[in-house]
């Protein structure tokens, strides 16, 4: 009696990993062994199980997914990668408000991998964001969606803009009102700069900040209780940046550009 397909796929890491490796096309056995860091004696029995369930076929020493296998793996891969993204720290994700992520992108959180949960001490919160800004100096742009600015934000903007970095900024309505009241000259200078595009998001912004450049993405959600948390998520991959661009487009289309105040 054959095993249920879910058991075939998920009850063995070698079988699951083999299926994912074959998603992009046929692979030679030696390639599979190298990628999985295993030996032929360990892998062959697992591949035979996949073949017995019509998920994989082979000719000589080359293995590939069957049409059924490809159909299943195409559906399974996003789930596996999403769980990998959340497994980085499931307690973190489970205790933070991620309702600000559009449903379509929430289903594609697998594209953010690899990610790490960064936990700077309270006295080094600024330093973590400072390091991200320093990395941005080597990039062409930085896109920020935020409900807060550090007190020294004029210096941060001056450094990035003088480095030729295009600054795209979306702020919450409450932050914009505060900036106009408390830092009019500074924010006027930033908005007037030729490399700055400045927007206001009129709805409630229920996260702290979302920042990305050409190489990295930094996400700072609030706790589920609405409380501040000094920890943030740092993702570094082309897929994460593409995901971030779609995220920014979602908020951009609901924001109002500010060209003068």
UniProtKB/TrEMBL annotation:
Domain Methanogenesis regulatory protein FilR1 middle spans what residues?
Answer: 125-253
At the top level, the lineage of the source is Archaea
Which SUPFAM superfamilies does the record associate with it? Winged helix' DNA-binding domain
Name the Pfam families on file.
FilR1_middle (PF08350)
Q: What is this protein called?
A: Transcriptional regulator
């Amino acid at each position: 009696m054959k095993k249920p397909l879910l058991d075939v796929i998920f009850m063995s890491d070698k079988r699951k990993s083999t299926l994912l490796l074959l998603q992009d096309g046929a692979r030679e056995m030696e390639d599979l062994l190298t990628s999985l860091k295993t030996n032929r004696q360990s892998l062959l029995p697992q591949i035979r199980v996949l073949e017995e369930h019509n998920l994989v076929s082979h000719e000589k020493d080359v293995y590939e997914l069957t049409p059924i296998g490809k159909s299943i793996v195409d559906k399974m891969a996003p789930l596996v990668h999403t769980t990998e993204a959340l497994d980085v720290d499931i307690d973190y994700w489970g205790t933070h408000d991620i309702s600000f992520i559009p449903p379509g992108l929430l289903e594609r959180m697998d594209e953010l991998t690899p990610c790490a949960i960064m936990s700077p001490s309270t006295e080094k919160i600024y330093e973590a964001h400072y390091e991200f800004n320093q990395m941005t100096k080597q990039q062409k742009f930085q896109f920020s969606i935020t409900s807060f600015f550090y007190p020294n934000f004029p210096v941060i903007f001056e450094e990035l803009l003088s480095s030729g970095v295009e600054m795209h900024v979306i702020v919450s309505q409450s932050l914009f009102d505060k900036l106009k009241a408390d830092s009019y000259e500074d924010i006027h200078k930033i908005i007037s700069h030729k490399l700055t595009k400045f927007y206001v998001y009129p709805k409630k912004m229920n996260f702290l900040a979302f920042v990305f450049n050409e190489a990295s993405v930094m996400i700072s959600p609030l706790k589920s209780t609405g409380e501040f948390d000094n920890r943030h998520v740092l993702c570094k991959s082309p897929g994460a940046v593409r995901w971030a661009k779609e995220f920014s487009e979602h908020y951009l289309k609901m924001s109002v550009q500010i060209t003068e105040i």
